[in-house]
Design brief:
Helix 16 packs antiparallel against helix 25. The chain has 26 helices and 12 strands. It is 62% helix and 7% strand. The protein has a 5-stranded antiparallel β-sheet with strand order 4-3-2-1-5. Strands 6-10-7 form a 3-stranded antiparallel β-sheet, covered by helices on one side. It has 643 residues and is an alpha+beta fold. 35% of the residues are buried. It is extended, with a radius of gyration of 40 Å.
Length: 643
């Protein structure tokens, strides 16, 4: 009695100053045994009372209880929080002293209780003023997807102040309702609302509703939600079907050859087994006869043969049954999932097309300069990839001095053109002009120059990849849905390819230089007789093609790694683009880049695990293509076409 009076007095001292509000300590004393020794079955009553109390101390207490920091002082039965060797009051959070020398009994909730505490904490955190805690609560629900979370999640949606988080809560509540809502009509409505969502987790939710299990019965049961009837040997292997019957004690296990041999060996009586001479047991039929005799005498289990298995399978019906008993719900889920999968397939095709278009624009930028030098001049420039590399390194150097990435890119584009234009003119004046109409010597000379330029880049910049950082407004991706997305850098490269297409067409069609280039391309001798200097035009043309390669290097450097070998990654594709599209034709280069880009992405989609094999198949296809159309997709017209 004295102890009870002391406990009552202590509880009174812990009440708030107002005296009318209930304290957490008082509430815990009503469930003292459950708090000290919590169990999965008993913790529910404690949590219900804690949640109903509305006390702000409940959340810190649940966190401490989950983390096994709650102890009970044996002297007066008070519950306290212990952190290291310091004790804290549960109502005020104030430090009340050291744990040294105090007789304490810890509360150690097991894994199931701690999960229940975590679920209870989620319900509090869904309406916490701190948005990070609300986001953490939503993420916890996404991981567990439990039926008990539906009601508190739905209750928190109306008062959610953050629009983005509110949308996430609404979507998550829809998935929970599709699986766990009480009324079938509510579940069907939630399923139909999800039918426009292409996300993976929505598809996973619908697949969980449509989960099936293979069963067998003498006749098709009318009380089950049947997904489909299975035919042994067609829809399900016969061995698997019979194993199902054996596991359900509907049929005896098939007698194997090893079991027959072992049983016969154990029952040899003199020179006979089951009345059959041992000398005759060299065939399956004789062994089966002897085993059957042993089974008749009760010395072996009944013989079950392949014929018996076939007869047993014919006497049972095999089917897949939904775990969800309501056929209307599974029908709605199947309709929604079929529609989603159709739109996902269409979206995947569109996403693949965007990837192919992006790759085609990269190949076009890399090849358009080569199309000018190779197509107009007939020069096989193996150093074209190194001009791309020079342009990328020019962009990197500019960013070292101009930290504003947007401004640095605007400076790097014309500067890369100037640098590679000068390098191209120098190369043409010193080497190429002496090797016209000597393609083998030109190839070897430019190949040697490419190696020299690679080594020079290694000596200056090292062998490690250098960053060419895109502006902040190019970060991220344009997202159409959960399947279709394309990065802003790829969009920028695509737009740059269109700009260069228009610019080159303007130069070739609307300027004097373009007129002279086309004249030299069509008939160099006639152009020279009309006062055009073919030597000067060749120099400017080679410089123009090299300068465009430098600009392409800046664009490609924003997307790919900038190294001394980066040009080698694009030289083969550039030559293939020019040859397939049609030598000396801008539209042909565009067509060739589109064909190669879409072809490569298509092959990679068919064989995603081996990109090297995809490139090999692409090269083989192009070789076959050139056999049937040697002048490319857009053949050059005029006298040059006959050269």
């Amino acid at each position: 009695m004295l102890r009870l009076l002391c406990l009552a007095l202590a509880l009174c001292l812990t009440l708030p100053a107002a005296g009318s509000a209930q304290s957490l300590q008082t509430l815990l004393q009503t469930h003292a045994d459950e708090v000290v020794k919590p169990g999965r079955r008993t913790v529910g009553a404690v949590l219900d009372d804690l949640l109903a109390s509305g006390l702000p101390q409940v959340v810190p207490f649940l966190e401490a209880w989950r983390d096994r920091e709650i102890v009970r002082r044996e002297e007066d039965g008070f519950f306290l929080r212990r952190v290291d060797d310091v004790l804290f009051d549960l109502d005020t959070g104030a430090e009340i002293g050291s744990a040294d020398g105090v007789d304490l009994k810890p509360s150690r909730p097991n894994g199931g209780v701690r999960r229940a505490l975590g679920d209870a904490l989620v319900q509090f955190q869904l309406s916490d003023p701190d948005i990070t805690k609300r986001q953490a609560a939503v993420q916890a629900i996404q991981r567990s997807m439990d039926a008990s979370q539906l009601a508190p999640l739905q209750g928190s949606i109306a008062d959610e102040p953050d629009p983005a988080l509110k949308a996430v809560k609404t979507r998550l509540a829809g998935m929970l309702a599709a699986r766990f809502a009480d009324a079938p009509e509510a579940r069907i409505a939630a399923i139909e609302a999800l039918s426009g969502d292409l996300s993976v987790d929505v598809r996973a939710t619908l697949n969980q509703i449509l989960a099936t299990e293979v069963e067998a019965a003498p006749t098709l049961p009318e009380d089950r939600n049947i997904a489909r009837v299975l035919t042994p040997g067609t829809d399900i292997p016969e061995g698997e079907a019979y194993a199902l019957l054996v596991s359900q004690d509907l049929a005896p296990a098939l007698t194997t050859s090893d079991e027959i041999r072992q049983t016969l060996a154990e029952n040899i009586d003199g020179a006979r087994v089951g009345g059959v001479p041992v000398a005759r047991l060299n065939t399956d039929a004789a062994r089966a006869e002897a085993y059957a005799a042993l089974a008749t005498d009760g010395k072996a289990a009944p013989l079950v043969t392949e014929d018996d298995r076939a007869e047993t399978l014919d006497s049972y019906t095999f089917f897949e049954a939904y775990a969800e008993p309501n056929a209307d719900i599974t029908t709605a889920a199947r309709t929604a999932l079929d529609g989603i999968e159709t739109r996902v397939a269409i979206s995947q095709a569109a996403d693949l097309g965007l990837d192919a278009l992006s790759l085609a624009s990269i190949y076009f930028l890399a090849a358009i300069g080569l199309a000018i030098t190779f197509g107009v001049m007939g020069v096989i420039n193996m150093a074209h990839g190194e001009f791309i590399m020079m342009g990328a390194y020019t962009g990197y150097v500019v960013q070292l001095f101009v930290p504003d990435y947007t401004l640095s890119i605007l400076i790097a584009l014309p500067l890369a053109f100037a640098v590679t234009f000068g390098a191209g003119v120098t190369m043409e004046r010193l080497v190429i002009r002496h090797l016209y109409h000597r393609p083998l010597e030109t190839l070897l000379a430019t190949f040697g120059i490419s190696i020299a330029l690679q080594q020079l880049a290694k000596n200056i910049f090292g062998t490690q990849a250098r960053p060419l950082t895109s502006p902040g407004w190019l970060d991220g991706a344009l997202v159409f849905n959960d399947v279709i997305a394309i990065s802003y850098i790829r969009i920028a490269i695509f737009l740059m390819a269109l700009i260069f297409l228009a610019l080159i067409l303007y130069v070739l069609k609307r300027t004097r230089l373009g007129l002279e280039v086309r004249a030299v391309t069509q008939n160099p001798g006639m152009a020279a007789s009309m006062g055009i200097n073919p030597d000067r035009i060749n120099m400017l043309t080679f410089g123009l093609g090299s300068g465009i390669a430098g600009i392409a290097g800046v664009a490609i450097g924003l997307y790919a790694k900038v190294t001394s070998e980066m040009g080698a990654d694009y030289i083969v594709q550039s030559f293939m683009t020019v040859v397939v599209g049609g030598v000396g034709n801008v539209w042909g280069t565009l067509a060739g880049a589109s064909l190669i880009g879409f072809l490569q992405k298509g092959i990679e989609w068919l064989n995603p695990s081996n990109t090297l094999a995809a490139q090999t198949y692409m090269i083989l296809f192009i070789i076959l293509f050139i056999q049937f159309r040697p002048k490319g997709i857009v053949a050059l017209k005029g006298r040059a076409a006959a050269d």
